[in-house]
Design goal:
heterodimer; A: alpha/beta; ABC transporter transmembrane region fold; six-stranded mixed sheet; 22 helices; 10% strand; B: alpha/beta; Rossmann fold; four-stranded antiparallel sheet; 64% helix
């Protein structure tokens, strides 16, 4: 591995300063649960009060009861102690569960909101954002916020109360002794801050090294054949050892910090207790303080340290949450540029007449993929689009379904500009069969009906019959319930295509768009597919990006596209006779070898 | 559990440190356990006969004990925990180094994700058992024994009563951690399926939008999300219960001590100081009781993890040097004549022949072009030469030696392959190009880059050959990647050069330039070129057409054109394609 690679600085985004605007926006999500939060808050106060009761009662038990020999009183105090202990345990349980519950509810709502929002964004957004990133927004980023919504804010307030309660009890017992007991607190504070700082940066470096190690392993597993073909097994192992050693060294450093810090905290505790005994002892000698008070002070000091440590932890959580919430909110602020007009024109019974009028389109600012394209397709007509890759054929599909809006010009259906129609209405009338068949995990039935309750069993069966899938499905032990795994791995390419045909048929659209797949299938399946296509385009307006000669020949019209423009138009025979672009494409793509 | 025995050799390496650690942890427990006794004495002193000087001495004594104890625990951590990290390091190195030698067949049957999980989670589980597991179990056992002895020596009756609830903590912790682990696994599973769901929806967004199934998908997402919430709340209920429960049990112990101890104080057989001692010891015992339950879980998790690691580490590579290897063969003596003798191949564990009865001779210094449809076995045939897989029948000879008898490292040094998918490491360009050598000669890097048609591109990068590529650096185009991969193979200076469809992402013009440059390099090497394009291979000394796992046509370009077979068809189509491309 090169020197340079080892030295790459990788600062991970562990946190951001707490931003008030973001925080405010986050807090808004608490609103529906304000009563639950109030309850959680009351419970926290009760817990901190109860936690302080026990050390407060101990001196009474010792000084009044034991030293004075009051057995009855001792019994009573023991019972009270037992009762508060149980009560405290119970409330703690309620409290912990309640805060998780609140957190989970809010997370659920927020996650739904983000998912729904993304789902309704336009296709361009999906084309420009890697799916992995979008998935992270819905999953991990929101998960990070859970801490804030659950334990974070409520328990932070609880910690503050805890500290106040303890201080209150200590001061009422003996204010001088309180000062003595707290005198060493700053030392602990500083030690903790230093330790936390060291551990945090060490932890950050460890995380960077772990991810480096992971990507190294990942890379060398993916590239194992390169490693082996170049005889570099030993070198890889050596390079891995270097990162591994760096990781171990960093871990050793953090072991050192812990090895120093933990005994140090214990020592501080011992010093505090020593101070209490020393100073308190003097007071006892002068009869100014009782032994019981000293014992309860010993207990208080132990209780005091925890909430202080917790508070700084909570601040870290909040910082981490800021980075995630910023990303999530940025996403929620993203608008879909494809908007529906407020009062869309009604299309009760679509006929299926399509017209492109001087359409210009560019995915990116100035690179036009369609240049002044105009054509008209009459009701029930079947039109084939042919052309080399990049000619602009698939763009026509994208525009017609309004996945993108035209840059210039107009597209009409039955004479109405598609931008004035209800988007869902429009898409419902257009059946799209894509080249790259996408199947959802589930079963065959779900993949045909897409879980639409209007697609009845009868419709499914009919479309299966029409696409020639019947024999295949009958051969499956579970028929329509045959499991389909992620991306349809259990089906062959041809079967997947037929399923997607059946899907389109079941929805019975007025307009059909078919992007024929190029992948070769066996002769038998090929025949099935050819037959199914005839069924598919029967009695509806069809636009086909054709790769089969049989498909082309059954079309009324062929539009030949080249580099974003319409070059030729006509029937198969006239275009062949013309001996132009189509003639050559025909020889290249459609003529059998 | 037996799998953990495999760790003994690793532990032995750090024998001394470990022994030192055990001594330190014992001393720590000894000092730390005496501390409450001192506090108890101090309190007793206060109750009966307060003497300020004595009290100060007690206070100082207590602090000193904790201080010395602290030093020992420091050294315990610096030995035992550090050793656990060292062993983790050794284990990971051994694991990774073993992976480097396993053959392609092994990798075909396991996912990268699985191996990653082994290298991280499983090694971690073993580490947790070695470090915290060993340290805390030592500490816990010692401390428990010492504390119980002390408590019994103070007062047997109170000791029995006070200790009674403690084993329940251990049991409770054991079961609770186990349950928590199971439930968090369920949470993880639910999270994965939620993630998978989201991933699927976003991948299939076109279908969903085309068929306007958004609402349906949102409903399904909701139920996945609700399931995740349910699993989380089940975990939360358990966690919410576990912590109060543990402190409840210690709390009960303390109250029992106050009550029964108090009665004994009144009867005069116990002191107030004793009560304080008991309380402090009980608090000290809480952690060991929790630790017991925790350690049992650590062991339970470490054992299967170690087993999984051993499974892989004990897998023998199926392609390696063996007794058939003639160690006398060196690279220098080989000229590079390749001969396939009636060779057939099917993938291990399958019945379908990918290549059947291949007979072919490539004279040293000659070039061979291979063309054919996708899936015809073009890549497979070249991968068999450097033994990425071993052939099923027949033989492959280089200069008359069966490849199985040539030492593997010699064989692979002879062959320079530019694979179909150009895999590059995310490191500097220079590193990638000079990958075959442990030292980088800048001049040579420059020269091979010029031949591979990469140099012009590189000179536009601000950091030239020091530019980092891949995930953390700049992204190369497909063509740049292929050319880097070509340069890498040339740097190796191999006797046999194989280009497996290496120009697919390079435009025809650049391809011609590279081919022209390559001519000089190819002169004294045996070259095999696989391509979809006739233009790439038409000047080869010999061309074969692979079709349906056999050689269907063989000859020179003009011979094959004459034949009017598959080769001719492909040729004619490519002419047409060019023609169409030129129309404006």
């Amino acid at each position: 591995m090169s020197e340079k690679k080892l030295n790459i600085k990788e600062e991970e985004e562990l946190g951001k300063p707490v931003d008030r605007v973001l925080l405010k926006r986050l807090l808004l999500y608490f609103k529906p649960y304000k009563w639950h939060i109030l309850l959680a808050f009351l419970l926290t106060i009760t817990i901190s009060a109860l936690a302080a009761v026990r050390p407060r009662l101990t001196p009474i038990a010792i000084d009044d009861m034991i030293v004075n020999g009051k057995i009855k009183g001792l019994q009573l105090i023991s019972l009270i102690l037992l009762f508060t202990l149980f009560l405290q345990g119970f409330i703690q349980y309620m409290m912990a569960y309640l805060t998780s519950w609140i957190g989970q509810k809010i997370i659920f709502n927020l996650r739904k909101k983000v998912f729904t929002h993304i789902l309704n964004l336009n296709l361009k957004f999906f084309d420009t954002n890697p799916i992995g990133r979008l998935v992270t927004r819905v999953t991990s980023d929101i998960e990070v916020l859970f801490e804030v919504f659950s334990s974070g804010i409520v328990t932070a307030l609880g910690d503050v109360f805890m500290i106040l309660w303890i201080l209150y009890f200590m001061f009422t017992l003996d204010y001088k002794l309180t000062f003595v007991a707290l005198s060493i607190l700053p030392v602990l504070g500083i030690a903790t801050a230093v330790f936390r700082n060291k551990v945090r940066s060490s932890y950050r470096r460890i995380r960077v090294l772990v991810s480096k190690m992971n990507s190294f392993v990942q890379e060398h597993i993916s590239g194992i054949s390169v490693v082996q073909l170049f005889n570099k097994e030993k070198r890889s192992a050596d390079e891995f050892a270097v990162i591994n050693q760096a990781h171990t060294n960093e871990n050793k450093k953090s072991i050192f910090y812990y090895a120093v810090f933990f005994p140090f905290v214990e020592l501080i505790g011992a010093v505090t207790i020593g101070l209490i005994i020393w100073y308190g002892g003097g007071q006892v000698v002068q009869n100014a303080v009782s032994v019981g008070v000293i014992i309860s002070f010993i207990q208080f000091t132990e209780m005091f340290f925890r909430p202080i440590r917790d508070l700084s932890e909570k601040y870290n959580i909040l910082q981490t949450a800021m980075a995630s919430s910023e990303r999530v909110f940025a996403l929620l602020d993203k608008k879909n540029p494809i908007i529906q007009v407020d009062t869309p024109e009604l299309i009760d019974d679509i006929r299926g007449e399509i017209e492109f009028k001087n359409v210009w389109f560019a995915y990116n600012n100035s690179e036009y993929v369609l240049k002044n394209v105009s054509f008209k397709i009459y009701e029930g007509e079947k039109v084939a689009f042919v052309g080399a890759t990049g000619a602009g054929k698939s763009t026509i599909i994208n525009l017609l379904s309004r996945f993108y809006d035209v840059t210039n010009g107009e597209i009409t259906i039955d004479g109405k500009d598609i931008r004035n129609l209800n988007i869902k209405e429009l898409r419902r009338n257009i059946g799209v069969v894509l080249q790259d068949v996408f199947l959802f995990s589930g079963n065959i039935r779900n993949n045909i009906s897409l879980e639409n309750k209007y697609i009845t069993e009868g419709k499914i069966n009919k479309s299966i019959e029409n696409t020639g899938l019947t024999d295949f499905i009958n051969s499956l032990p579970e028929k329509l319930n045959h499991r389909v795994t992620e991306r349809g791995m259990t089906l062959s390419v041809g079967q997947k295509q037929l399923v997607s045909f059946a899907r389109a048929l079941a929805y019975n659209p007025k307009i059909l768009i078919l992007d024929e797949a190029t992948s070769s299938v066996d002769t038998n399946t090929e025949l099935l597919i050819q037959k199914a296509i005839q069924k598919l385009i029967e009695s509806r307006t069809s636009i086909i990006i054709a790769h089969r000669l049989s498909t082309i020949q059954s079309c009324n019209k062929i539009i030949v596209m080249h580099k974003g423009e319409i070059k030729e138009c006509g029937t198969h025979q006239t275009l062949i006779d013309k001996q132009g672009l189509y003639y050559r494409l025909y020889q290249l793509q459609y003529k059998d070898i | 559990m037996k799998s953990l025995l495999a760790l003994i050799p690793y532990l032995k390496k750090y024998k001394l440190k470990l022994i030192l650690g055990f001594i330190c942890v014992s001393l720590y427990v000894a000092f730390n356990s005496s501390y409450p006794l001192v506090i108890g004495d101090a309190v007793d002193e206060l109750v009966k006969n307060p003497d300020i000087n004595k009290i100060i001495i007690y206070a100082l004594k207590g602090i000193t004990l904790v201080f010395i104890g602290g030093i020992f625990i420091f050294f315990t951590r610096q030995t035992i925990i550090v050793v656990s990290r060292e062993i983790e390091n050794d284990l990971r190195n051994d694991f990774f180094s073993h992976l480097q030698h396993l053959s392609r067949n092994f990798y075909n049957n396991i996912t990268t994700g699985d191996l990653m999980a082994h290298a991280t989670n499983d090694v971690n589980n073993v580490r947790n058992f070695l470090g915290p597991g060993i340290m805390y179990s030592m500490q816990t056992i010692l401390r428990t024994v010492v504390t119980i002895i002390i408590l019994f020596s103070i007062n047997v009756e109170v000791a029995i009563i006070a200790i009674l609830p403690l084993p329940f903590i251990t049991l409770l912790v054991y079961f609770v951690i186990k349950l928590i682990y199971n439930r968090s696994m369920k949470v993880q599973e639910s999270f994965s399926s939620l993630t998978a769901k989201v991933q699927e929806v976003f991948s299939g967004i076109r279908v969903i939008k085309s068929y306007t199934r958004e609402v349906n998908e949102i409903e399904k997402f909701d139920s996945a999300s609700a399931d995740y919430q349910k699993k989380n709340l089940a975990l939360a209920r358990l966690e919410a219960f576990s912590f109060p429960m543990m402190f409840l049990l210690t709390g009960i112990s303390i109250i029992l001590v106050i009550y029964f101890g108090g009665i004994k104080v009144i009867n005069g057989t116990f002191t107030v100081g004793n009560i304080t001692e008991f309380i402090v010891y009980l608090v000290q015992l809480t952690w060991p009781m929790i630790a017991f339950g925790w350690i049992m879980n650590l062991i339970q998790r470490a054992a299967p993890s170690m087993k999984r690691l051993l499974n892989i580490m004990e897998t023998e590579p199926d392609i390696k040097d063996d007794d058939k290897t003639k160690s006398g063969i060196t690279g220098n003596q080989i000229k590079g004549k390749i001969e396939f003798q009636n060779m057939s191949f099917k993938y291990p564990g399958t019945d379908v022949y990918i290549l059947k009865n291949i007979n072919l001779i490539i004279e040293s210094g000659n070039s061979l072009g291979i063309i054919g449809y996708t899936g015809a076995g073009k890549s497979t045939i070249v991968n068999l030469i450097p033994r990425v897989y071993d052939i099923s029948e027949g033989a492959i000879l280089i200069d008359g030696y069966d490849v199985k008898t040539i030492p593997l490292s010699v064989l692979r040094n002879l062959v320079g392959i530019v694979p179909q998918e150009s895999f590059l490491f995310s490191d500097t360009l220079e590193y990638n190009i000079s990958y075959s050598s442990d030292v980088t000669e800048s001049e040579k890097v420059k020269r091979v880059s010029e031949i591979a048609g990469l140099y012009k591109d590189v000179s536009l990068f601000p950091e030239k050959f020091k530019t980092i590529i891949g995930e953390r650096g700049i992204t190369l185009s497909g063509g740049q990647k292929q050319r880097t991969s070509i340069a890498r193979a040339l740097y190796k200076n191999p006797k046999i050069l194989i280009l497996d469809d290496s120009f697919s992402s390079v435009d025809t013009h650049t391809e011609e330039e590279i081919l022209r440059e390559l001519k000089t390099v190819m002169k004294n090497r045996t070259c095999i070129l696989i391509s979809h394009r006739i233009s790439t291979i038409k000047e080869c000394d010999k061309i074969i057409v692979l079709d349906n796992s056999i050689i269907s046509e063989e000859g020179t370009h003009s011979e094959l054109i004459e034949r009017k077979g598959i080769y001719y068809d492909i040729y004619m189509k490519q002419l047409l394609e060019e023609e169409i491309e030129e129309i404006n």
